[in-house]
C-alpha cells in the first residue's frame, strides 16, 4: 500500500473542507431566516371580566374566545379576543417559529396562578414573511413563576396567503 505525501494530504484535506463549506452554505429555498420574521405591536387588555362565575364551575356562555387573522400583503395581523387567563396574569407574550410553509405561534400567559379566571384580549403582528401560502398554527401556553412553560394543543389553525 502506497503512503500519501504531505502535499497530497494537504490537498485532500482542503478539498474535503471546501466540499463541507459548500454543503453547509447551501440553503433550501423553503427555509426562512427565523431572525428576519418578527412579532411586533403586542397588545394586552388586562382582565376584562370574570370568565367563571363564583358559584359555578363552568364558563360563562358569552366568553367564547375568537381569533381574527388578516393581512395587507406584507404583514399578518392577529387578534385573540376573550382568552381565558388567570386573574393574576401579568401579560401575554408571543413567540414565533417559521418552518417551510408553517407558522407556529405561541401565546404565552405570563404571571402567577390564582383561584379565579378572567377574560383578556391580545393582538400582535407578524412582520417580514416572504410572499407565499402558509399554514398558521396558534397554541396557548402558560408560564407561571414556579413552573416551566406548559402548552396545550393547537387552538387555532388557518391559511395565510401573502
Mean pLDDT: 80
Compute the CA-based radius of gyration.
24 Å
Number of helices: 1
Question: Structural class, please?
Answer: mainly beta
Q: Identify low-pLDDT runs.
A: 19-34
Report on this model:
- This protein is mainly beta.
- It has one domain (30-161).
- It is built from 1 helix and 8 strands, in the order αββββββββ.
- The protein has one helix spanning 6-25, and strands at residues 38-44, 66-71, 76-86, 89-99, 102-111, 117-127, 133-143, 150-161.
- The chain has a 4-stranded antiparallel beta sheet, with no helix packed on it.
- It is globular and about 80 Å long.
- 16% of the residues are buried.
Q: Which short descriptors sum up this protein?
A:
single chain, four-stranded mixed β-sheet, four-stranded antiparallel β-sheet, mainly beta, 162 residues
Task: Give a quick summary of the entry.
The chain is mainly β and 162 residues long. 12% of the residues lie in helices and 49% in strands.
Task: Give a topology summary.
Blueprint: H1 6-25, E1 38-44, E2 66-71, E3 76-86, E4 89-99, E5 102-111, E6 117-127, E7 133-143, E8 150-161
Parallel strand pairs: 5-7
Antiparallel strand pairs: 1-6, 2-3, 3-6, 4-5, 7-8
Amino acid at each position: 500500500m502506497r503512503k500519501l505525501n504531505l502535499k497530497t494530504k494537504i490537498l485532500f484535506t482542503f478539498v474535503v473542507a471546501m466540499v463541507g463549506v459548500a454543503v453547509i452554505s447551501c440553503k433550501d429555498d423553503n427555509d426562512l431566516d427565523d431572525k428576519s420574521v418578527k412579532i411586533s405591536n403586542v397588545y394586552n387588555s388586562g382582565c376584562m371580566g370574570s370568565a367563571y362565575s363564583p358559584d359555578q364551575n363552568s364558563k360563562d356562555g358569552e366568553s367564547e374566545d375568537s381569533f381574527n387573522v388578516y393581512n395587507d400583503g406584507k404583514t399578518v395581523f392577529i387578534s385573540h379576543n376573550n382568552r381565558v387567563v388567570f386573574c393574576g396574569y401579568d401579560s401575554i407574550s408571543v413567540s414565533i417559529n417559521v418552518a417551510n410553509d408553517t407558522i407556529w405561534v405561541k401565546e404565552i400567559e405570563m404571571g402567577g396562578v390564582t383561584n379565579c379566571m378572567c377574560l383578556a384580549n391580545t393582538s400582535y403582528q407578524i412582520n417580514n414573511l416572504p410572499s407565499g401560502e402558509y399554514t398558521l398554527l396558534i397554541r396557548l401556553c402558560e408560564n407561571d413563576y414556579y413552573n416551566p412553560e406548559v402548552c396545550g394543543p393547537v387552538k387555532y389553525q388557518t391559511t395565510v396567503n401573502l
